[in-house]
């Protein structure tokens, strides 16, 4: 397992790879980040290098036209929900209820928004699997394992209304130039 970290305007990001695909992407301190996971190497692999390129484009306000290979291992339900998240277009959002309805249509089995919320919250590959694009039924912001400030900043970035994300006065600015530009 290769584990690296890089900085962003929204804080340090931890990347994990099995050497072939990206297996984890968390903001440092994010809820549900595996306990004890710390960057251990400066070694890289194509999946990590591509992820860093993707992050650089994303945080520059671009729509990356590629996605590094990702691999996740969980329950079939969670994997299905994460697959549905991958279908949410850049700059758009879906409610937990809409995702539950889509899961029900695809499987023919009932699905509750609460169950969707549990799967969304445990997403191991933040940003690339865009759990930040999931909102409450009333259009309000709801929980985000990486923190509500980050969720709001990511949605603003995708709407093109955060051109100053890296500006010195931004309350999320870390005070130094991010590695990812």
What does this structure look like?
This protein is an alpha+beta fold. It has a domain of 80 residues: Arc Repressor Mutant, subunit A, CATH 1.10.10.10. It has a three-stranded antiparallel beta sheet with strand order 1-2-3, covered by helices on one side. A hairpin with a 6-residue loop joins strand 1 and strand 2. Helix 2 crosses helix 4. It is globular and about 45 Å long.
Detail the poorly predicted runs.
166-181
Radius of gyration equals: 16 Å
Q: What is the β-strand count? A: 5
Largest β-sheet summary: 3 strands, antiparallel
CATH topology of the domain at 76-155: Arc Repressor Mutant, subunit A
Distance between the termini: 26 Å
Q: Give the helix tally.
A: 5
CATH superfamily of the domain at 76-155: Winged helix-like DNA-binding domain superfamily/Winged helix DNA-binding domain
> Percentage of helical residues?
25-40%
CATH class of the domain at 76-155: Mainly Alpha
CATH architecture of the domain at 76-155: Orthogonal Bundle
């Amino acid at each position: 397992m290769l584990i690296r970290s890089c900085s962003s305007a929204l804080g340090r990001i931890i990347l994990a790879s099995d050497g072939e695909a990206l297996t984890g992407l968390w903001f440092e301190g994010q809820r549900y980040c595996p306990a004890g996971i710390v960057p251990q190497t400066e070694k890289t692999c194509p999946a990590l290098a591509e992820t860093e390129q993707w992050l650089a484009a994303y945080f520059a306000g671009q729509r990356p036209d590629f996605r590094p290979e990702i691999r996740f291992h969980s329950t079939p339900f969670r994997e299905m929900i994460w697959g549905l998240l991958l279908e949410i277009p850049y700059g758009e959002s879906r409610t937990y209820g809409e995702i539950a309805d889509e899961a029900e249509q695809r499987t023919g089995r009932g699905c509750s928004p609460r169950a969707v919320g549990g799967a969304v919250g445990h997403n191991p590959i933040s940003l690339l699997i865009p759990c930040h694009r999931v909102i409450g039924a009333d259009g309000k912001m709801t929980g985000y394992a990486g923190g509500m400030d980050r969720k709001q900043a990511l949605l603003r970035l995708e709407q093109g209304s955060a051109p100053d994300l890296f500006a010195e006065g931004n309350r999320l600015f870390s005070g130094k130039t991010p590695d990812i530009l």
